């Protein structure tokens, strides 16, 4: 993590998102603020061309419909063909049969990282959960076993975000305890975490460490923003300012990481 | 109104919006800030499944097209079937024949509440008005008779928002004089009022009182936000902070309501 | 430029945008803050009706797909038929063959103004450029000759935005050196410039001067906002506040314009 932000800013990775309408503005601003560049393009006629020029792809199913699902599949498939890293954000997994069906289709394209809240990760791992729509009714701790199962089955990195974030692969687990309680009161913070992972995937070889870096940046920027804020409205704007001015030294000083031994 | 916010926050209602692209982010943030949870889903294959898990539905025709109109109709019909409350926001009523045709279709599914500006309510009631697009060229007072006619004809609650807001049913009228002149300079404040009504419908039996509560919360939060702001940009963010920290006591202290005798 | 803002606010022009999902909220807020009114409507069944009631149209291809391209073409064609001014924002020109094909189709409807960054203007003028997606890899100075060629060929005004902005027609060039380095770190500032041009086109006869006014307002508002900001997050909100309170006197005092002799 020593020079994670410096490396990111030197690379200035292009990150393509095929994401939901609600958060497009947030995620574009977060990428610009941290030093990356967003691209949003979903037309079937160009989605593969875009994948070929970006550093990483992020697919988020929040406001999916048939046209967009086809865009997501075309993009994910092309990322796989080109060996480019891509992130799957399974928003609302488990809330409807349609979402589950689409996720089954997308996961076949071998996402480099899957990031969701506990309910979404539990649902993806076929654990029956009570859905709260797009919010999580479960704590992230409860989904660690399901996350490991997913990571092993699909040979991917799984990130479970929540009050504590977990980054998991077949053997490793990192727990990150940065962040602030107001962050879930701002729409799209989870989706922003996913594009942040995309940005770090564009600048860092190891997807596991890229994910740890991204989630730590999210948490630390959230803490710094909260210190200047009076609620979730002001948090959102200070969050971009914090991403913009965050240094690697601040990141290291404030990171609260626990690295577990391989299990 | 005594414990309106407390009740809302205990319920934490899930509110599904099928709304326009411009305001999705705002309305999601407002719901999260006040203590509710937003869901945005419009795919024909899941829109009814989502209606079945939420407390209330909001349909806003701002950026309609044929696919989305079908989503709106599917959702509104299912809300009617399940007896779930739903709000119709007739953005731009009267601006084009297409909008009027779509509104005729949607209103048949018996919205629990209709909220619009004066021009929209006049247009819905078939009063010829000069359109200003999605802004209102009329004062809310001018639409009270049209609102009563609509409320009676469709057995619904009608809310006319403007410098003064009116909540109307067959017999009752409440005039709310909270709010701030900068609020119409922030995009989507009307749309936000509609989802706020959706949130209170999820936590309060009587749709008339739920609408009064929602509009008073909007106005009081707008006033509190304006006190800290230097224009419509800062108003928007302080508005979320105000929704987040608003108490029932503040609400009661600042509410400027006039309840009229049945006419 | 003497009374540019006063004239705009008296006219309160209706500006229709057919634009990308990422920036709809920003551009609507900017129009409201400066004193104009936004309309976003793209349904094939109403897009021409909307063109007929607005002062100006803005077409931005950021998140295009086939349905939206048809909406753009219908609207642009109708603007041409009615003699209404319209602005073309060729987002990501050159990034994919599909974008180039669509731009070829739209430019045939004779945009009143074309506004893009240097890479986009170079690409539109068929100069081979290395694409950075939707960001510019070129300085605006490098695109002045290409801009003049476009302006001459299509009898239009061309605006190249960047650290310095250029407004160009067949004979004239104005260089504007207002603005702030954080502005490109806020998503949609270019798109906002395009709708601002739309607003001034609705209030000013000469499209060249309207474009100069709009770009100067953008730059000066950005400078005023930066003085109060700690990064791109706070810049965005202070930018709306600055647009809202900006006066013609401030505009004249701070404008850094260089008008070149006809070349």
TrEMBL record, chains A, B, C:
As recorded in UniProt, coiled-coil segments are none
SUPFAM superfamilies on file: Ribokinase-like
The residues listed in the UniProt record as binding substrate, with positions renumbered to this chain, are 40, 188
Native organism is Lunatimonas lonarensis
Q: Which residues bind ATP?
A: 115, 161
Question: Which key words tag this protein in UniProt?
Answer: ATP-binding, Kinase, Magnesium, Metal-binding, Nucleotide-binding, Thiamine biosynthesis, Transferase
**Which InterPro entries does the UniProt record give?**
Hyethyz_kinase, Ribokinase-like
Task: Indicate the family of this protein.
Answer: Belongs to the Thz kinase family.
Write the Enzyme Commission number(s) for this entry. 2.7.1.50
Q: Which GO terms describe its biological process?
A: thiamine biosynthetic process; thiamine diphosphate biosynthetic process
Tagged with keyword Cell inner membrane: no
Q: Which reaction does it catalyse?
A: 5-(2-hydroxyethyl)-4-methylthiazole + ATP = 4-methyl-5-(2-phosphooxyethyl)-thiazole + ADP + H(+)
Q: Which cofactor does it need?
A: Mg(2+)
The molecular function terms in GO held by this entry are: ATP binding; hydroxyethylthiazole kinase activity; magnesium ion binding
Which Pfam family is an annotated match for this chain, by its short name? HK
**What name goes with this protein?**
Hydroxyethylthiazole kinase
